[in-house]
Amino acid sequence: MTPSVPTIVIGIIIILGMPILLHIILSSSRTYTIPPTVLLVGPSNSGKTSLQTLFERGSSDTETHTSQVSQSVELNASTDSATKKSFRNHDATDGTYTKFLFVDTPGHGKLRNSAMAKLNSTEKLQAVVFMVDAAALGEPEILAPTAAYLYDVLLFVQKRATTSAKTKAAIPIMIAANKMDLFTALPSTLVKSNLEAELTRIRASKSKGLLDSGVGTDEIGSEEQDSWLGEYGSAKFTFSQLREFDVEVEVVPGNVTGDGPGAEKWWWWIAQRI
Amino acid sequence: MLDSFEILTTSGVVVWSRTYSAINPSIINNFIADTFIEEKGGFAAVADSKSAANNLPYKSDQHTLKWTLVKELGVIFVAVYRSLLHLSWVDKLVDNIKTIFVKLYGEQLLKPHTTLVECGAFDEYFDQQVQELDQTTAKGASSASAAPLEHNTVPTIIGDDPLDQPGLTYRGRALNGSNEPASPELAPATTPNGSRPATPSNNHLLVAKAGPVAKMSRRARKSKSVASAPVSSGDEAPSLKKGKKTAKKGRKWDADGYADEDDDVQLDYSANPNSDSEVEVRSAALEEVDSDTWGTRSKGKFVLNDLKDEVHEILASEAEKKTTTKSQPKSGLFGTGVNAISGLFHNIVGGKTLTKEDLDSAMKGMEEHLLKKNVAREAAVRLCEGIEKELLGVKTGNFESINARIQAAMEASLTKMLTPTSSLDLLREIDAITAPSVTSLRKARPYVMSIVGVNGVGKSTNLSKICFFLLQNKYKVLIAAGDTFRSGAVEQLAVHVRNLKELTAREGGHVELYQKGYGKDAATVAKDAVTHAAQEGFDVVLIDTAGRRHNDQRLMSSLEKFAKFAQPDKILMVGEALVGTDSVAQARNFNAAFGAVRTLDGFIISKCDTVGDMVGTLVSLVHATNVPVLFVGVGQHYSDLRNFSVKWAVEKLLSSN
Ligand SMILES: Nc1nc2c(ncn2[C@@H]2O[C@H](COP(=O)(O)OP(=O)(O)OP(=O)(O)O)[C@@H](O)[C@H]2O)c(=O)[nH]1
Ligand SMILES: [Mg+2]
């Protein structure tokens, strides 16, 4: 029996089409299952892991130590429930909730590139929380590396906003000034101005600094303008300069443990952006 | 006694802890940073789930930390105690706790998207272990005190105590701390100090109220328990059991989980003077009933199976598992054939669980590759071993081959190794010293930088390159001729200074040479140069030093004095990209030459332009010393100095040609 031509053609189409079909099904189902993500970055000992456990458990008595790996937790936020401004919403029954992933990253200098890689590769990244220890930010030994890390994060987000297609919207950044319960903590206005001043200095010294190994001499000119944080040529850096790139930066004070403004404001900031 | 015992995840969350006396959290933070992140104790030490006895104990000022980890689960077990105490049983404790905890709660640690581990019931297991192991070394420390049991017997409600359950409800679903099958019923319990509430969610530990047995004579009791011994001895771990203990079946009950040695009332009815640190409440009459059941109602009293038995069962079965997996025979010819085919298939499609055989050949290839890139054998072996241990038992991702997986792991490993703990912004650092902020209360002074290395690696050249960079940024630089040894060295430096002056005069650079000729003590010259610079208002002092063989004892030992006299802010060592196997020893000796309190701050790798992709030397140097590479020299001109980029180096190292 000789098979008819249509049978062969249909057979071939099925055989060739199957992988493509499968791929389409798989890839489309994946985008549906990935929840929006909020990334938590910042230097070591600023209280990132503490905040994550606070949001997950509703209580802040969990001890934490230096993190070595990222950790994500699933949380639910609402913008229309009665308890929308509180992360202690586990028992809430009203309102609509959005599920999202809250991802903690290690802050240690040697592990920083894992956080930066997360920044680069996370799908549906909706917001970045950069946590700083407001009680330690008065010391130059803490301020300098904190600002250096923030510089990298801001520059990355700025570059992404300028180069990427429209689908990847600019990512809003909240600078969470933590440990406001301590009397040594700087007020958020000072946190902001100290960071801006230090970022100005870093920006200046980067522009005068040595080239990185691997950067060819022919690339120098084009690099310069792209890797300038904020308004090109401005003498002073301010966070508001990033608005030009649609990147919103806000400093919000709070604390995980002790008495103070608490973490509610941070939660509300996040809830509005997912 | 222990100060603290913590069980924490690699993500930094403490899932269970017991504190006897509060310790500074930074002790454990430093332990984590030094051992796991910066790998100061050596790399291979960390990569395996070894016994605590084989892991190097971590010592802080006053404390010793014994630890072990389970890599697959990302969980670390740490015991902290004062170094003055030599607690030899802690190793055993850490190991046993690991085994028990993993057995009971291991699965929970694998759950994604959560940091919660419900292990409230673990308190009892921990107490049991501490009492059992601590006792073996502290025999007869406290004398047997046979307090009347009735006085300490308090009926306690167990099972609904809210203490350890901080609002663990999740949208209607209550996350109860209890994970155990036993029912949280009301039951009479004996607590040694009844004033405190019993630990929540521990339900199978309840012991019968002491019956008439407690009032029996010592001898009568002894004979009774001896008689009943054979019934219970079968389910105790042989490895943990002392011969004499077989005679009695100790039931320990430490209800509140906070018992300290001193407020622990010792109840001993076994008449065995060696077991007196155990709290024993034993109703001999019930022996036969409870030895093989969880909870039984017997003669109107609620009885639960012994915790100790359960613990010993866990430990014994895990130990057994270990030996059986080790001696597992290889599957037959047919089995290996099928395995090979499915292995091939999985290698293409991914989803393969990596075995030692899979990795061995692939790792050999990776090692060869690294050696070809000029990485010293020692460093290559260490890197490969670390990766092999990391990947053993790991499942490859979809459509991921073994080699791709290894490549990815090596990239991560190299990146972590080469990334410095704190990145260097040299200009910022100089500014902080020469123009300190008002709040820091420090006096302005010149920034001092010195350069060391073996002969002929390009110390003076690289010093001049750094000088050129600083002059371009309008700093006032003083170059100190610290090589008072090799003839011609001072003149060579003078030529560099003259060139630099010419090159940067237009841009407003200012550079001078400080020299005192030959034969003088180099350390004194350096010190004088710094003083001179401070008086004359220089911003930076760059000190050249004599090149020396790293195995030249006399010259190497003078480096310590040099560091003490000149007090450099940065000591950089110049290493050649070309050096062969010697580089590791060189770096080690130089790093150790500055005395106990000072090490190198960074490397400058010279002549990188001459080696192409073979930049392996820098891996060898970092491997040997944990000191970061800061700059690389890429040519003959004063401007041919670059910041070291980790990404650039890793790409070169992994590129295949
Ligand atoms: N006083 C005070 N201490 C806090 C607060 N938040 C966190 N801490 C403490 O800060 C320390 C560090 O917190 P972690 O959450 O472990 O820090 P981290 O940012 O995760 O650090 P890495 O994991 O090393 O990056 C802990 O000892 C916390 O108890 C706060 O609001 N106030
Ligand atoms: Mg953390």
TrEMBL record, chain A:
Region (Disordered): 56-88
UniProt main location, coarse: endoplasmic reticulum
GO CC terms in record: endoplasmic reticulum membrane
Membrane topology: Single-pass membrane protein
Transmembrane intervals: 6-26
Pfam families, per the entry: SRPRB
Residue ranges with Polar residues bias: 65-81
Family named by the database record: Belongs to the SRP receptor beta subunit family.
Protein name: Signal recognition particle receptor subunit beta
Organism, as annotated: Cylindrodendrum hubeiense
UniProtKB/TrEMBL annotation, chain B:
Composition skew (Basic residues), residue ranges: 241-251
Residue ranges of the region described as Disordered: 137-278
Subcellular locations according to the entry: Endoplasmic reticulum membrane
GO CC term, one of those recorded: signal recognition particle receptor complex
GO terms, molecular function: GTP binding; GTPase activity; signal recognition particle binding
Bias kind Acidic residues: ranges: 257-266
SMART domains, alphabetized: AAA, SRP54, SRP54_N
Residue intervals of the SRP54-type proteins GTP-binding domain: 628-641
Keywords: Endoplasmic reticulum, GTP-binding, Membrane, Nucleotide-binding, Receptor
Pfam families in UniProt: SRP-alpha_N (PF04086), SRP54 (PF00448), SRP54_N (PF02881)
Residue stretches of biased makeup (Polar residues): 190-204
Taxonomy, superkingdom: Eukaryota
Membrane topology per record: Peripheral membrane protein
InterPro entries found in the cross-reference section: AAA+_ATPase, Longin-like_dom_sf, P-loop_NTPase, Sig_recog_particle_rcpt_asu_N, Signal_recog_particl_SRP54_hlx, SRP/SRP_N, SRP54_GTPase_dom, SRP54_N_sf
PANTHER family: SIGNAL RECOGNITION PARTICLE RECEPTOR SUBUNIT ALPHA
Similarity comment text for this entry: Belongs to the GTP-binding SRP family.
Subunit organization: Heterodimer of an alpha and a beta chain.
Official protein name in the record: Signal recognition particle receptor subunit alpha homolog
Organism lineage string: Eukaryota, Fungi, Dikarya, Ascomycota, Pezizomycotina
